[in-house]
Amino acid sequence: MPVIAVDKPLRLTSHDVVNRARRARGTRRVGHTGTLDPLATGVLVLCVDDSTKVVQFMEADSKDYLAWISLGAGTPTLDAEGPLGEVVEVAPPTEAEVTSVLAGFLGPQTQVPPQYSAVQVGGKRAYAVARSGGELDLPARNVVIHSLELLGVYPSVEDSPHTFSRGEAGWTPDPEGRTFTLPPPLGHFPTLLVRARVGSGTYLRSLARDLGAALGVPAHLAGLVRTRVGRYDLADAVSVENLAEAEGISDLAALDFPRIEADERLARELRQGKRPTHEAVGRHVVTLDGTLVAVVDGDGEALRVVRAWA
Q: How many other C-beta atoms can be found within 10 angstroms of the C-beta atom of residue 245?
């Protein structure tokens, strides 16, 4: 323990934050549940010490983002790292046009990762090949985009909202809210502000590229803030500077699984490697074959994750 949500600042890599957590917590056992690009900010979930064992169960958590997508300019990295590639004159699209195009990106689909990514092909990292001037044939991956909501179309990144507050619908522009830091813009390009909820493995940089293509123009991700990972909201994340004293939460509270409390017989069966079969135990009814559930020993602390069959 514990599991800690950190507000990753601009230009730090996820590994940089892990290293800072190791120094601050005095342990080498620190992992994260999903990489956040250096030019993105927001929620990075860290698992410390024994909590590293639950990383595998949290990597599939859905994630919420605020994405600034600039139209009329592409970059090799697909974000504001640049340099600028293809640049074309483009008039700002109407909100109705963008909303119609966004609707076509909802649901299960395939997505080609960015060349500047950690995806491996034949033992080679895509970003390493790209930085040396090469390019890998990256296979499309299955992803799910749950929702895409257009918050506005603006003449440029500078003209778009940078201050937000959390509301029932998510983080929303608010002049009195919290200011988010974006990377310096690469130019004066029409910019879309999109609130997104996506499944694991979805690249917002690829979404920016593909959205631009659907609109008939090059595009890049000009800014990105991750506002939620699973049950962790940005409003509850701690700063990198406060990692040492951050309390975090327990493994049990971190997992968004049904929960059953193990009686003596069930605990014995689990220790023997048997598959539990219970119609109703504790506060939840397991109704789907193969559902992952959190099993808690009588002390309320000892946690196991098992695949239960009803």
A: 9
